[in-house]
Amino acid sequence: xxxxxxxxxxxxxxxxxxxxxxxxxxxxxxxxxxxxxxxxxxxxxxxxxxxxxxxxxxxx
Length: 60
Known about the structure:
The protein is an all-alpha fold. It has a domain at 15-47. The chain contains 1 helix and no strands. The protein has one helix at 13-50. The longest helix is centred in the middle third of the chain and has 38 residues, at 13-50. The mean pLDDT is 87.
């Protein structure tokens, strides 16, 4: 055998396409929403603790 993998274990074009579709439309959207939502939550919590953004008040 010249191949390093047996023919049964080699990925086919169909299985690669299915894996791509599952990642592109199943996994990555949830990861993207989680990252954006996590960043929004971090900003929200920091504003609760540190106050809203803007110039400091009462310095006149």
